[in-house]
Amino acid sequence: MQVFKSFFMIARKRLRSACIYFAIYTVIILIFSFTAESSFDGNFQSSALSVYIEDHDCTDASLALCSYLDSLHEVTTEPLSAEEIADQMYYRMLDYVLVIPQGFEEKLLAHDTGGLLDSSMIPGSSNGIFVNLQVTQYIHSLQSYLAGGYTLSSALTATDRCLAEIPAVNAVSFGSDNSVTDNRVFYFYQYLPYVFILILFAGMAPILITMNEPDMRRRTLCSCLPASGRNLQLAAACTLYALLVWLLFMLLGFGIFRQDFLTRYSLLAMGNSFIFLLFCVAVTLFVSIFSPDENVLNMISNIIGLSMSFLCGVFVPQSMLSDGVLAVGKFLPAYWYVSINDMLALSEQTFDMHAYLQGLGIQLLFAAAAFALLMAFSGARRRAQL
């Protein structure tokens, strides 16, 4: 077991740096978990925006529109110059500018739809588009009542009542009663693929590169230990190292979330994370046989980790990705990891054991393919060095 012991002797010398990496990635995953939870819970909730209105008509219709916007947003009506408006929009102090020209009410009563309002917003701003939709909705509703024979006073009252009766939209949260567990646990598991890749590349890959140095490798080959024995001991050491990393994160999750970490969802997600860990081990072993320096190793880990995270739905939900991106993501194991995690987190009613096992099997196939490439390249590289 000399190779096995040598592996952990090198690991012990790098224990301080490994602890630093673990602490860094622990902070990263906790920040992701808690900030993602709050941002997700805030989805689909309207917020008050900054709106500036110039009312040059000052009639019942224009005042009613101003009152409607004031009930939804922070409205400013104090006169501003064109330069002041431009400055405030540039510094994002204003989201939307509405100018109600003189004759606004007359055009409404005459059913004239051209040039009713003038507006401006920050180009490409979703906030500005949101306010503009609200203004358009109000005007269209008011015009509909006027076209139906309502008087202006009755149309304004009916429009206010109609818009007030629009049902509120509530976001479906993973922390709701229909979910399997606390949504913080969901996000904890969601970001593990990115963290596993980075921490194994940062902690385990340098040890493997040291083990593959020419002098150490030649010394091992000169001994009575066969190459198969060396590879077996090295594989056992890598597996144990990765298992310790996995256990540390599982203990971290239990220490933070307590009982929420022991739900049925969490235990199934725990198995999912372990299967993905095997792929991370295989990729780390494969990259290590080329003995890249530390800078190249960091670059490779970021390329693999970030590309899989963005293409497979780790950072951005799969429901928000285009079909083309998802088609590419299906050729990466993180896609199937995230698919399982999404299925487990949404609701117990959506869980399908067949889909769960299928996702695990596909991830195992990716790991097996990576191990096969490892063996092929390792054998070719060993023959080239002889």
Folded structure, characterized:
The relative contact order is 0.10. The protein contains 17 helices and four strands. Mean pLDDT is 82; it is low at 39-45 and 169-181. The protein has 386 residues and is mostly helical. A four-stranded mixed sheet has the order 2-1-3-4, covered by helices on one side. Helix 1 packs across helix 10 (205-211) and helix 12 (227-257) runs antiparallel to helix 13. The chain is elongated. The chain folds into two domains: 2-41 and 175-385, no CATH class; 50-164, abc type-2 transporter like fold (3-Layer(aba) Sandwich). 69% of the residues lie in helices and 5% in strands.
Short key terms for the protein model shown above:
abc type-2 transporter like fold; elongated; mainly alpha; 2 domains; 386 residues; 4-stranded mixed sheet
Q: Low-confidence runs (pLDDT<50, min 5 residues)?
A: 39-45, 169-181
Task: Characterize the biggest β-sheet.
Answer: 4 strands, mixed
Query: What's the arrangement of strands in the largest beta sheet?
Result: 2-1-3-4
Q: What does the average pLDDT come to? A: 82
Q: Count the strands?
A: 4
Helical segment count: 17
Structural class: mainly alpha
What is the radius of gyration?
30 Å
